[in-house]
Amino acid sequence: MGWIYPIKNRCSLVVVRYSDKANERRITKQRFNMHYLQAIKNLQQLKRELPKIVGNEMVNDALDNIRAQREIDGQPMKPRKPGSTRNRGRSLLVDTGRGRRSIDDKVEGMKVKLQAEEYMVAHNEGVNKTVSARSRKGKTFSRKMNLPQRKYAGKSKKLDERIGKVIQNKI
After folding, report:
1. Mean pLDDT, residues 7-13
2. Distance of CA 101 to the CA centre of its chain
3. In what order do the strands lie in the sheet with 2-6?
4. Distance from first CA to last CA of the chain, Å, rounded?
5. pLDDT higher than threshold 80 for residue 120
6. Is residue 153 predicted with pLDDT exceeding 70?
7. Choice between 60 and 36, residue whose per-residue pLDDT is larger
8. What would the pLDDT profile of 122-148 be if each residue is shown by its tens digit?
9. Buried b / exposed e across 129-145, counting CB within 10 Å, b at 16+?
């Protein structure tokens, strides 16, 4: 058992311990200057790495939601229309995998943005408008696009908890 006494005007402590051999007091000075400086350096490094850590968790959360076919609130995504040719053996939002591979994070200072190809953004936000498209032969035409919102990426409690756990593990 021992006591810790702060020494004024310094960043060090005096730790008083009793020796096991005799009941005489043995005073051991332990300087914590280096420990404080190291802790500050570790926190500064964490501050630099934090946007990339958050970005990685955002990407992983979006990919997990696509694989599990659930929205950010945990609800299942709206299914395709029955009888659709794309229903056979495919999960929602995946055709060739190009859209899933396009999901990435972009770090700008202390801000993190999730970016994806245009049609993945359309699935995330939902679209109901007329768009121009191009056929395989190169001709352009207009068509009505109606995609229900299947929100796989965005701010959610689950994502906040996930980021919190990762930061706690880093500290």
Report:
1. 43
2. 17
3. 2-6, 12-18, 25-31
4. 28
5. yes
6. yes
7. 60
8. 888 888 888 777 778 878 888 888 888
9. eeeeeeeeeeeeeeeee
Residues in the chain: 171
Question: How far from 76 is each of 31, 68, 85, 92, 145, CA to CA, in Å?
Answer: 57, 8, 21, 11, 22
Residue 53 CA to residue 164 CA, distance in Å, equals 11
pLDDT at 35: 67
Query: Which of 43, 54, 49 has its CA nearest to residue 112?
Result: 54
Give the amino acid at 39.
Answer: A
Burial (CB < 10 A; 0-12, 13-18, 19+), residue 123, is buried
Report which DSSP code applies to 76.
Answer: B
What is the rounded radius of gyration, in angstroms, for the C-alpha atoms of the chain? 28
Alpha helices (runs of H) in 17-156, residue ranges in sequence order: 33-68, 98-102, 118-125
Of 37 and 35, the one with more pLDDT? 37
Residue bearing the bigger pLDDT, 88 or 17: 88
Tokens for 27? Answer: 């005073």
- Cα dihedral: 19, 20, 24, 30 (round 10): 10
In terms of C-beta density within 10 A (0-12 exposed, 13-18 middle, 19 or more buried), how is residue 30 classed?
A: exposed
- Contact present, 163 and 81 (Cβ < 8 Å): no
